[in-house]
Design a protein that fits this description.
With 295 residues, the protein is α/β, with parallel strands linked by helices. It has a single domain, classed as Divalent-metal-dependent TIM barrel enzymes (TIM Barrel). Helices cover 38% and strands 19% of the residues. The chain has helices at residues 29-35, 46-51, 56-64, 87-99, 129-146, 168-179, 187-196, 201-207, 242-255, 271-287, and strands spanning 20-23, 41-44, 70-73, 105-108, 111-114, 117-123, 151-153, 182-186, 213-219, 222-226, 229-233, 260-263. The strands form three sheets. It has an eight-stranded parallel β-barrel. A two-stranded antiparallel sheet has the order 5-6. Helix 5 crosses helix 6 (168-179), helix 7 packs across helix 8 and helix 8 (201-207) runs parallel beside helix 9. The longest helix has 18 residues, at 129-146. The protein starts with 19 loop residues before the first strand and ends in an 8-residue tail after the last helix.
Length: 295
């Protein structure tokens, strides 16, 4: 089966490549709104534009998204679900992208809804040829509607299916090859999955096709004791772990500099502490002797 989205033009926005941004959420919006820190971009969720029809947070979100360059990151499209894609949601994304020519839209290689019930979690897929064909069709539909390629994020997962015939990097490579979509590389998710399943994080990173990555996410995962062992949970509730920083540097060297986002949405500290993490992203980019340039 051949994708129809290969005719889409390559990703090209007004957002500079070697840039560092912050995820906007309920927990940090007030401080960001009042302090206006020197961020290269903000990430906002289309779901918040739908759910927050009024009130302080929505007012601050609307003000901030016109004060900073933005990117859009979804968590409710549920690309892997059996339900039809939400056309109203995608029309909203298309409209916001039209208002913000610097922006791109990303979502996850996962599913999160069934029969109009949303689980508020990103659930893993059975990664085989049947799922691949289905996901290609869904991604094609979404990209054709919004008019540009989607960035697909690798998720954290704590189980794997016996019926899977691809590992996650190979599955995502096949998706991007057939649809013209790109990868939003969540370095923390890749690292945590590799450690949890006894794999080498750098080896997993290098499976991804070099030309596919167009952005990065960094976050802090939480170590939990489970039985006699440890499991790293993608909770976004603490600082980025040192091994994840090292893996991010490897990613920058291999895939190049792309917009990098710091996610800290639980146990959120004062904005000053969060901005220290954003500044460290900038230092990583600077250490590569890279100057910002347009994508």
């Amino acid at each position: 089966m051949q994708s129809t989205s290969t005719s889409l033009s390559p990703l090209s926005t007004g957002l500079a490549r070697a840039t560092a941004g912050l995820n906007l959420c309920h927990e940090n919006a007030s401080e960001v709104w009042h302090q206006r820190p020197p961020l290269d971009f903000l990430q906002i969720h289309p779901e918040h534009l739908i759910q927050e029809e009024g009130g302080t947070y929505r007012d601050q979100l609307d003000d901030l998204r016109h004060a900073y360059p933005i990117v859009l990151h979804g968590f409710g499209l549920s690309l892997g679900s059996c339900a039809p894609l939400d056309q109203d949601y995608l029309q909203l994304v298309k409209q916001v992208l039209k208002e913000h020519p610097e922006a791109f839209f990303s979502d996850h290689v996962s599913w999160s809804s069934l029969s109009h019930h949303h689980f508020h979690d990103l659930l893993p897929l059975v990664m085989n040829d049947e799922t691949l064909d289905y996901m290609v069709e869904r991604i094609d539909q979404a990209q054709e509607l919004i008019g540009q390629p989607i960035l697909l994020e690798n998720i954290s997962s704590y189980m794997r299916f016996r019926d899977s015939t691809y590992d996650e990097p190979s599955f995502i490579n096949a998706l991007t090859d057939r649809t013209g979509a790109y990868v939003l590389m969540d370095v923390n998710n890749l690292w945590a999955n590799a450690v949890n399943f006894g794999e080498n994080p750098l080896s997993q990173l290098m499976v991804y096709r070099q030309s596919s990555v167009r952005g990065y996410h960094l976050a802090g995962c939480t170590c939990k004791q489970v039985g006699n062992g440890e499991v790293f949970i993608d909770y976004h509730g603490e600082a980025v772990h040192e091994p994840v920083w090292e893996l991010y540097k490897e990613a920058l060297s291999h895939f190049g500099p792309w917009p990098t986002l710091l996610e800290w949405e639980n146990n959120v500290p004062k904005l000053e502490r969060t901005l220290q993490e954003v500044s460290r992203i900038r230092r990583c980019l600077h250490d590569l002797s890279v100057t910002p340039e347009a994508t």
